[in-house]
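BUG-371 | component: ligand-complex export | severity: low

The export step for iron/sulfur cluster jobs runs without errors, but we want the raw record kept on the ticket for reference. Input record follows.
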Amino acid sequence: MNQWKERPQEQPKELPNEQSNKQPQEQQKWHYVPQRVFFEGEALAYPLGQKIVALCRELGLPTRQIPSHNRVTGLPGDTPNQKYAEAKKTLVVGVKRDLRFPTCRPSADYQFPLMTSCPGHCEYCYLQTTLGQRPYLRVYVNVEEMLDQAAKYIEKNTPKTTTFEVASSGDPLSVEHLTGSLFKTIEFFGAQEHGRLRFVTKFTGVGPLLKARHNGHTRFRFSLNSARVVRDFEHRTPPVAERIAAATQVARAGYPLGFIIAPIMVYPGWEEDYLQLFDHLKRELASIQPLSPPVTFELIQHRFTARAKKVILERFPESRLDMDEEERKFKYGKYGMGKYVYPDETAKSMKNLLRTALLERFPDAEIEYFT
Ligand code: SF4
């Protein structure tokens, strides 16, 4: 059943933003504009819920009230691929009821899920399986309640420092122009002596966050990959050059900076491609060296589960992702589940090559982990 009228174009258009209306063009063009908006009635009890729904109506987007952000039905699309694409064009505005924050190793102590999903269509994305049949974008409006809860976690763990990861369930920067929630969260953590925030993004709308009073307590990380991986698999995400340009803005604003190189893939010529990426990064960051605190890198090799492979091939039947189990090593995980990673020899040479190349170019960098 298709109860939604399609908008004539998919390209994002300019959106107002309460922190700044003057972002550079290249940032604004990646602003996500949904094609339809669902909201829980309860979300309207919160100023942020009212603001988002009013903004979407102002933009002429169709809106509809639903009983729960966990149950969204009636999206258009016949094939898995179409359903996936339509879900990504759907924004759901809800209240986060479960305020227990799951652990988030190795990136941080806890997850801090301000939102769920992302407008990108990366074929390898971990959300393919974690979100299953619910890849639509969800934003939560009870941010103050979530921050109050984070304060309790921090207090309980004091005098140790407690770290929270915002990007464990999606890309929070991709919807920041609609919510402003990341700005608020960054300023909250800026005032926490024992709390720290981290997130990773492929998006580039950093403008409004440059003014946030972060106090050096938020590490802003960008996800990067080789030109070929980005071209072949990271659909509907900003080009690497724009991500790096956004990273330099963030570093100039004094944020601790980091990069996640992931998923690292092996293909003919992969070594040169990754070295080119690092050279590009070095050139762009040269004007703001030394970075203080030192830049961090997290290195993650490509992996997949049997379930992920099935879902990915349903959604992207033409995918060229290398998911040949015969060429991989099976690594057992929790509850008997496992994933396919590169064989030990390949993983070892990948780790050595990339680690050495990064430290040659960024001698002060901290390589947090390779996994
Ligand atoms: S940008 Fe990140 S969260 Fe979004 S689809 Fe790509 S991998 Fe997934």
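Assignee comment: Attached the raw record above. The radius of gyration is 20 Å.
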